[in-house]
Amino acid sequence: MSSFLSINIYAQVIEISVVDSYSKPILGYEVFIDGILKESNLNQKTSTFNVTLNEKVEIKHPYFEIFSFALPNTISRDDTLKKIITLSPKFQEFDEFSVIGSKFKEVFDEKNEFVIDYYLYPKESQVLLTKLKNGTHLKLIREGATIDSLAMNFKAESLFLDALGNFFLFGEKDIHQFNIVNDKFIFTQSDEIDLFNKTIKDAVSLKANCAVYEKFSMLNQLYSLVKIENGEGKVIYDYLEKENYERASHFYNKTVNYYMTIIPEKDNVILMGLWDGDLMTLNGHPNNELEQLGINTNEKIMAMTSWSDKITSKPINVQSFGLMNQLLVLNGENDSIIHINYENLNVIKAIPSKAHLTGDYFFDYFYDQIYMITDTKGIKQVYKLNVNTGESSLIADLSEIHQPRNIKVINDQVYFLVLDKNGFNRLVKVN
């Protein structure tokens, strides 16, 4: 760690990572210190600079609310303060739609109904999960008209579509499977979320004779595709980002060593044999004797575990999709597209992508197409991937919209959610 001296007033080294509410990096922000621009047009995932104690730091971005903070007096000058900053989106003023109304169209315009989540369905239809007053509702919408609607008797939180095309509705503890039959919602079964996470969540392909799952290990720096057949697993593809793993291991071990040094045996979950290996479970075990002296040990442990978990151990940029006739691996670490045959699960070919693979994708299950979402200084664009040539073609430019979220695509038609000035989610389609 390092520190800098200037006229007997030391400057603190601070390292920040700026993300949105989905923990995705935000680029193109500016850093102001006591109202003076310090850094501009920051396009790296982390930024390091010096701040004197009691100076006010502000993070500004045209599409997000200003975030400000000051350094705590308790921090040591020998430490590099690492801080993860989450920015909140600015609300969309919807009078802009009257100006660009030919380009964007509201799909669901119930003004007092909040769209929690949605999914796209054939025949110009949408499955909506909405909140009205104190209840949640599941709705099937077609061309603005409600085809079917069910009030939920539990707190529904999100929607999911599995590798077989089954819909799932998440509650707080359970998950509920449903399908659409003759334009009606038909619920089939309910399970605990833990069981769903083990059997469905990470499945890329579910066939009659075997299933293929994606898995991250080695501090999320090793990606593997695993075939499960008759209860046995076999790796059919893997990729290790070695340098990232070494860096993640360094911060992981540093956090564990600090915990072992500062937390007494009676409170130490590692020494008690209760630790599951997850750094985040080390939070909430303060050294009470040091706490009485005004030393907040738990605050530093929380900062170290959060940095390790969200930054250095962030999963590498590799994802897989189960298309109708093959498995596809999109490796954004080396910008390659790997084709895997279903018949024998061997790699058929690997072709280079002609554009950087961002890691932000949407798979259109119904039309068997993968789309990629790019974010350049807060401006989002949607591209259609040609997985056979490595080329991508722009199908939607969302630069006129402040922070479009939950972008989905069906048959090249792009939809997204955006907050209005009253704080309600609005579902919008790109014409």
Please write out the topology.
Elements: E1 4-6, E2 9-19, E3 29-33, E4 36-42, E5 46-52, E6 56-61, E7 64-70, E8 80-86, E9 104-108, E10 114-121, E11 125-132, E12 135-142, E13 145-151, E14 158-161, E15 167-170, E16 174-181, E17 184-192, H1 193-199, E18 203-206, E19 211-217, E20 222-229, E21 232-240, H2 242-262, H3 288-292, H4 297-312, E22 318-322, E23 326-331, E24 336-341, E25 347-352, E26 361-364, E27 369-376, E28 379-385, E29 392-397, E30 405-410, E31 413-419, E32 425-430
Parallel strand pairs: 2-8
Antiparallel strand pairs: 1-2, 2-5, 3-4, 3-6, 6-7, 9-32, 10-11, 11-12, 12-13, 14-15, 15-16, 16-17, 18-19, 19-20, 20-21, 22-23, 23-24, 24-25, 26-27, 27-28, 28-29, 30-31, 31-32
CATH superfamily of the domain at 4-86: Carboxypeptidase-like, regulatory domain
Shape: globular
Number of H/I helices? 4
| Alpha-carbon Rg, integer | 24 Å
Distance between the termini: 52 Å
Q: Name the average pLDDT.
A: 85
* Portion of residues within helices: 10-25%
Sheet/helix structural class: mainly beta
CATH names the topology of the domain at 4-86 as: Immunoglobulin-like
Class of the domain at 4-86, according to the CATH hierarchy? Mainly Beta
Low-confidence stretches: 1-9, 94-101
Strand content: over 45%
The name of the CATH architecture of the domain at 4-86 is Sandwich
Number of strands: 32
Q: What is the makeup of the main sheet?
A: 4 strands, mixed
